[in-house]
Write a structure and sequence with these properties.
With 292 residues, the protein is of the alpha/beta class. It contains ten helices and ten strands. About 6% of the residues have low confidence.
């Protein structure tokens, strides 16, 4: 996992939200509910029983009408992190699974450091999320959970997202390589359906597309026997310049489709390379997900 100094720098940032919180717990996010925090929201006419200390006498002097000052109440927001734990994630000289855990740790730390409510999901077992709250002192629970997850089998991603428990507006972070037949097949529109569902649930989607450097920059060549990590299906393929060019075009098409889909859903798409320097990845590539 990442070093303590890394988290000291990370503590200056916080996740960007697209919806105001409507929860009842106190926190650092502005809520749609009215309260008595320091940030002014609006005026409304006085009603019997209102706190006279919130009366705006300057407005009364100008209009001869009684108005109450309202303020935005600070609430905690919901941050859901879904980790793809399928077998394809356990690939690469620098494994996608390790990067996925590091990215989940980063998002978890950001959420807890800003007093948000964090839910962590193993996408193979969506019925048993772990809920973490109480600030960054609870971050050790995140690391402990990440140490227990195992990358094997396969995942139905759309079904997993639909099983995510509905707890009000917030941000949903999905960490995956998206190397799933239904996701890759543009005709099924599965990725777009996933984004539509999150939008329906008032979730800001953050897609962290986690890929191994070997998958992004092909160096293999010649006749190869390929084995699917999840289905164990075998494929004999001759890798030459034409095949690499075709692969790169399809990969670019996929990433551009995902990027445009997230943009249309008021979300964020980031391609995360296992070979990328971690500081550059988190503090440069991921800057779009921060509210700074």
């Amino acid at each position: 996992m990442l070093e303590a100094k890394f988290y000291d720098t990370l503590s200056r940032l916080r996740l960007q939200m697209s919806h105001k919180s409507s929860l009842n717990m106190s926190g650092n996010r502005k809520s749609v509910q009215k309260g008595i925090s320091a940030e002014f929201s609006d005026f409304r006419e006085y009603m019997p029983g209102d706190d006279l200390r919130r009366m705006d006498w300057n407005v009364y002097a100008r209009s001869d009408k009684l108005y109450i000052r309202e303020y935005m109440e600070e609430k905690e927001a919901i941050v859901s992190v879904l980790v793809d734990t399928s077998a394809s994630m356990d690939y690469g000289e620098q494994k996608k699974s390790e990067l996925a855990k590091e990215l989940a740790a980063v998002v978890g730390f950001l959420a807890l450091n800003n007093m948000d409510r964090l839910y962590l999901y193993d996408m193979k077992d969506m019925n048993r999320p772990i809920a973490v709250g109480g600030g960054k002192n609870a971050f050790h629970k995140v690391l402990k959970w990440l140490d227990t997850i195992r990358f094997d089998g396969n995942v139905d991603m759309l079904d997993a997202v639909k099983r995510c428990q509905k707890r009000g507006p917030g941000v949903t972070v999905i960490i995956s390589d998206f190397l799933n037949p239904t996701m890759l097949d543009e005709s099924t529109q599965t990725f777009e359906k996933l984004l539509q569902y999150l939008n329906y649930c008032k979730q800001r989607p953050v897609i962290l597309h986690t890929m191994a450097s070997e998958e992004l920059y092909i160096t293999l060549e010649g006749a190869l026997n390929l084995i699917d990590a999840e289905t164990e299906e075998k494929l004999r393929l001759t890798v030459d310049a034409k095949a690499i060019d075709s692969y790169e075009k399809e990969l670019n098409r996929l990433t551009e489709r995902m990027r445009k889909g997230c943009l249309g859903s008021r979300g964020t798409y980031v391609l995360c390379d296992t070979g990328r320097d971690k500081n550059q990845l988190v503090f440069e590539d991921l800057r779009e997900i921060y509210d700074i």
